[in-house]
Specification:
Rossmann fold; pyruvate-formate lyase- activating enzyme; 3 domains; six-stranded parallel sheet; 16 strands; about 15% strand; globular; disordered C terminus; catalytic activity; Cobalamin-bd
């Protein structure tokens, strides 16, 4: 329990303990003379609202600032409700992408005293100064005022030793994005702006000297300005060690030779690239204002896979306007053929303020009213199909993205990966009734049943591949394939579902 006093408490709920609140550290670093009377405390969404409220109130704060995101808005609503019930005199200030697009805001904004949209480093400091001086502004919704990046105090000194040992260390060399992809809030940015490069590298060196070896860059377009990308990569290459790991989000169709040359110099497993493909459908790309050279994208992913040791994490989105199961299947099959290490299958979510919302009525985009506002159906994808793709994505994570079935997966996918894996997904759900809490040993047994009975793969052949994967997984207790009953005869639900799908 906190015993120190703080006039200002900055807080949020992270999805996991290993995550860190990068935005709050920026607010803290730029409080100037108020920093000495402020504290930053982080929680996770798994913690109880009442316990969080107690810990926050123990600081006896006058101001509590919450950073609100799509993944924590429900929990923060509960906490703010409690705090206003117990200590209504405390001023609650909200910021973050979930509350920054008035009048399209969640109900937690009704409970708050002030809501800041956009950049908050300057605006939060000025508002706090006013409130602590008993000069309460009348305007509740405040447009954040941007600060030139060369005038911001960078927050990296606020990562403490516990953060360095246990959390992801987020860094950014630039802010903003010049592209206008409508599903992304970065479409609202006017351009991308870089931090002064040498100052940034000085901060990176200080982190490296303190023992940071895992740097997660949150730049939306790390390889936008190639000369800067190369300089940053050279900086880390000079400090390369067995445990250094760098994560970048890259534009898939921009990989000039100068960048390729330095990427080839990095050892295997030292780089991870997050590559947002989203869709290969050119009509959908045009509809959502996404500029992407699909030929270059395919060429670059193939080159990265063949010529570097980088881990390739690629993204697809299902449920975009005019999307269909066939369109999505085509994008998926194209991406599987490029053999990235991971394919993250995202279901479209409604982001407040995103330009994509202009398509809600014309394309029948029907979203869950509860966070995280996942799409439920469109005029081209019904709810049942959306649920099937949700399960497909979950099983894909368990089987493909986990890396546990490297030997078995090619046999599962065959020459039509999407259709085969959809068949597998439907069947696994028929047999297990769940996409969660399936023990790994049980998953091996279910895969044996489906691949032999539904796919007609020779039992000895699939057992040989499963055995290799099982040995790598290190699970105790061998699956007893011989004792498994024939499940085709008992899974009546599965048969019914297959008949239903055949008429869909």
């Amino acid at each position: 329990m906190a015993t120190q006093h703080a006039d200002i408490v900055l807080t949020t709920l992270n999805a996991r303990y290993m995550h860190s609140a990068f935005g709050l550290r920026y607010l803290m670093a730029n409080l100037n003379e108020l920093e000495s009377s402020a504290s930053l405390i982080e929680f996770t969404i798994q913690e109880q609202a009442l316990n969080i409220a107690e810990k926050l109130l123990a600081y006896q704060p006058k101001i509590i600032g919450f950073s609100v995101y799509i993944w924590n808005v429900r929990e923060i609503t509960d906490i703010v409700t409690l705090i206003k019930q117990i200590s209504p005199e405390i001023k609650i200030i909200l910021g973050g992408p979930e509350v920054g697009h008035y009048p399209d805001v969640p109900t937690v904004c009704d409970l708050a005293d002030y809501v800041i949209s956009g950049p908050g480093e300057k605006s939060f400091r000025e508002l706090s100064q006013q409130l602590l001086s008993n000069n309460r502004p009348e305007q509740k919704y405040i447009d954040g005022e941007g600060t030139p990046l060369d005038q911001l105090t960078m927050p990296y000194h606020l990562y403490d030793n516990d953060d360095i040992r246990n959390r992801l260390i987020y860094v950014e060399a630039s802010r903003g994005c010049p592209f206008k992809c409508e599903f992304c809030l970065s479409a609202l940015d006017k351009s991308a702006t870089a931090f002064p490069l040498e100052n940034f590298l000085t901060e990176m060196d200080a982190l490296w000297q303190r023992g940071v070896r895992n740097f997660k860059f949150i730049d939306r377009t790390f390889n936008l300005k190639v000369s800067t990308s190369v300089r940053i990569l050279e900086f880390f290459l000079e400090r390369m060690s067995d445990d250094l790991y760098l994560h970048f989000e890259v534009i898939p169709d921009n990989l000039p030779d100068k960048l390729k040359e330095i990427l080839k110099q990095f050892p295997a497993n030292s780089l991870q690239f997050e590559i947002g493909v989203q869709t290969f459908d050119s009509d959908i790309q045009t509809l959502i204002s996404r500029k992407q050279n699909n030929d270059k994208t395919r060429e670059n992913i193939a080159w990265l896979r063949e010529h570097t040791g980088a881990h390739l994490h690629t993204d697809l989105i299902f449920g975009l306007p005019s999307d269909s199961l066939d369109n999505f299947a085509d994008s998926f099959n194209q991406l599987v053929a490029l053999n990235p290490h991971e394919i993250q299958l995202g279901i479209l979510k409604r982001l407040r303020g995103a330009p994509l919302n202009r398509h809600i009525e014309p394309y029948g985009l029907n979203y869950n009213p509860q966070a995280p506002y996942n799409i439920l159906s469109t005029n081209s994808v019904d709810f049942m199909t959306m649920q099937r793709v949700n399960r497909f994505a979950r099983f894909w994570d368990m089987i493909a993205n986990s890396g546990r079935f490297l030997n078995t997966l090619p046999m599962i996918l065959g020459d039509n990966p999407f259709d085969r894996f959809m068949q597998l997904s439907d069947r696994l759900y028929d047999l297990s009734g769940s996409t969660w809490k399936i023990a790994l040993k049980r998953l091996f047994e279910l895969l044996f049943v489906v691949t032999t009975e539904d796919f007609g793969i020779d039992a000895n052949l699939i057992k040989a591949h499963l055995k290799l994967d099982y040995a790598r997984a290190g699970v105790k207790g061998l699956p007893d394939y011989e004792a498994l009953p024939s499940l085709n005869k008992t899974a009546k639900v599965g048969v019914a579902n297959k008949r239903q799908r055949s008429h869909a």
